[in-house]
Write a structure and sequence with these properties.
Blueprint (H helix, E strand, L loop, with lengths): L1 E4 L7 H14 L5 E4 L6 H9 L2 E4 L11 E4 L6 H9 L3 E4 L3 H17 L5 E5 L5 H8 L6 E3 L14 E5 L5 H17 L5 E3 L5 H4 L1 H11 L2 E5 L5 H13 L3 E4 L15 E6 L5 H13 L1
The protein binds iron/sulfur cluster (SF4).
């Protein structure tokens, strides 16, 4: 049985940068505190915690004597940075530069749209850390939508500036944007701007992933249980290859999946480390 690792798998640029920053800080021997899970991958998080990373929340800050605090790739809302400043905490900012750019854009658009009662609408997962940071840059007044069921929150008679969380699927965003445009056009409102904000590190993987999923009898997709891009990229594999299986650990693998297969493709989310993908490939080769 042939076992092949997807050449496009491994950390995206933003997560890779955040992990490198954390590793470098951990090597100094000082405790490293991080606001929330750095990466939506338990195996990688366990490894970082074993090296001394401590995960805390904003609510913990006033009680803890933290001197330096890491902000993960997802970013934080402006009030978190203000709180850190007030508490005299040095920020180790690992916000992905693509997310920072998007936050600034949202802030500019939100501020400019205030006199016109313009609405900032974000296509994303409510409660997701990146969405909280984006919303914070719209005065915490953005309308978060994940599908058309959420449309009741939108006033289609007012101007709309539409953005997407960086890790959402590009096709879903396109469909949602078209549906909003349709609803606005029906009542004669054309004041809609759709911003291109899906990260190419996610959307750019879909075409190659489709080919990869078609080339193998079985696809093993490795991702964290709470990874947004993992859920999306896995759905891309599953739509092409019915024998696609989502795992978080080696222990999730079932030998029955490979009984009639001659080739297995291994891939993962943008938050899945290359070393874990290699470990899974080695384990399957052993099987
Ligand atoms: S998916 Fe894109 S925006 Fe999100 S952390 Fe990775 S590189 Fe940055």
């Amino acid at each position: 049985m042939q076992v092949t690792i997807d050449p496009g798998s491994g950390f995206c640029f933003g997560v890779d940068r955040a992990i490198q920053l954390a590793m470098a800080e951990l090597e100094t021997g000082n405790p490293v505190y991080c606001l929330g899970e750095m990466v939506h991958n338990k195996v990688q998080m366990d490894q970082l915690k074993a090296k001394g990373l401590k995960v805390i929340t904003v609510a913990d800050l006033p009680q803890l004597k933290v001197q330096k605090l890491m902000v993960r790739a997802h970013g934080e809302p402006p009030e978190t940075f203000q709180l850190m400043k007030d508490l005299g905490i040095t920020t180790l900012d690992a916000t992905c530069p693509i997310v920072t750019k998007l936050q600034r854009k949202i802030n500019t658009v939100f501020t400019a749209g205030l006199p016109f009662d313009s609405q900032v609408v974000i296509y994303g997962k409510s409660g997701h850390a990146e969405v909280a940071g984006l919303n914070g840059n719209a005065g915490n007044g953005a309308i978060i939508v994940s599908n058309e069921m959420d449309f009741e929150k939108i006033d289609f008679s007012k101007p709309i500036q539409l953005f997407s969380q960086t890790t959402m699927d590009a096709e879903g965003y396109r469909i949602l944007g078209a549906a909003i445009k349709h609803r606005m056009t029906e009542i004669g409102n054309t004041d809609l701007v759709i911003h291109k904000s899906v990260c190419r590190q996610v959307s750019g993987r879909s075409p190659a992933l489709r080919s990869f999923a078609a080339e193998h009898d079985v696809i093993i997709f490795i991702g964290g249980n709470n990874s947004a891009n993992g859920a999306y990229l896995f759905s891309v594999c599953k739509s092409i290859n019915e024998n696609s299986f989502y795992i978080s650990h080696i222990e999730d693998i079932d030998i029955k999946w490979f009984q009639k297969s001659k080739s297995v493709g291994i891939t993962g989310a943008t938050s899945t480390p290359a070393w874990l993908i290699e470990e899974v490939a080695a384990f399957i080769k052993e099987l």
